[in-house]
Design goal:
258 residues, alpha/beta, Rossmann fold, seven-stranded parallel beta sheet, 8 helices, 7 strands, NAD(P)-bd_dom_sf
Length: 258
């Protein structure tokens, strides 16, 4: 199997894209260390996924370099090493630019960017210590490039994630650690189904900018993450891949089926 014997850390793993990534890596032979703040959901997920998965409850809005190291040390204590990191945890808050709360801007950057930096740094140090390289996959978004006026902090954080990926890649490639990112379009996670897809107007607005004519599934993003973390992507470094149904390349509105 593609990831047989590997140990993977996935943040934001209790639901949505993180859970889909955890399931994909497990199906391909890996052991997975799942990180999230949602303890009850995380416990349910691990009980369902089985003995090759372990839960770690962590508030990434309050992460520090010490806590990041502790998180990685926990994974090493349980599984003996770390081969892959999926920096998936993230939040979004919607408000008009002039009304956007400063505290939510700061919180979004702490979780979406700073936590990814600190955990990535701690994982990289562990990989260097182990020898043999590894792979880090960061979760960006089409909104790294496309502006949404009422999602200012989220869009800024995903732009930062794209550049963080490039900087990490240049710094870590000499150690055999490949760093890339995934920038999904609109994916049918629980959050999207209960928000954007619950509004017919919002649904049509999204699909009018999505040439493939539908939203993506979490499993479709997980397959790209798995590919980037595998030896099949051995010559891909510092790139952001966009599983977005063509959204990031379209410059016109497309017909929407009722």
């Amino acid at each position: 199997m593609k990831h047989d014997g590997k140990v993977v850390i996935v943040t934001g793993a209790a639901q949505g894209l993180g859970l889909a990534c955890a399931e994909r890596f497990l199906s391909e032979g890996a052991k997975v260390f799942l990180v999230d703040i949602l303890k009850e959901k995380l416990d349910e997920v691990v009980a369902k996924l089985g003995p090759k998965s372990v839960a770690c409850v962590c508030d990434l809005s309050d992460i520090s370099s010490v806590k990041a190291k502790d998180l990685v040390d926990q994974a090493v204590t349980v599984f003996g090493k770390v081969d892959v990191l999926v920096n998936n945890a993230g939040i979004i808050h919607l408000a008009d630019f002039v009304d956007f709360p400063e505290e939510m801007f700061d919180r979004t950057q702490r979780i979406n960017v700073k936590a990814a930096f600190l955990i990535g740094q701690a994982v990289a140090r562990q990989m260097i210590k182990q020898g043999g390289g590894g792979s880090i996959v960061n979760m960006s978004s089409v909104n790294a490039n496309l502006a949404i006026p009422n999602a200012v902090a989220y869009a800024v954080s995903k732009g930062a994630m794209k550049q963080l990926t490039a900087v990490m890649a240049v710094g870590l490639t000499p150690h055999g650690i490949r760093v890339n990112a995934v920038g999904p379009g609109t994916i049918l996670t629980e959050l999207v189904e209960n928000s954007i897809m619950a509004s017919e107007t919002a649904r049509r607005n999204v699909l009018a900018r999505t040439p493939i004519g539908r939203c993506g599934q979490p499993s479709e993003v997980a397959s790209v993450v798995s590919f980037l973390a595998s030896d099949d992507a051995s010559y891909i470094v510092g790139q952001t891949i966009y599983p977005d149904g063509g959204r990031s390349i379209v410059n016109y509105m497309v017909p929407v089926k009722d």
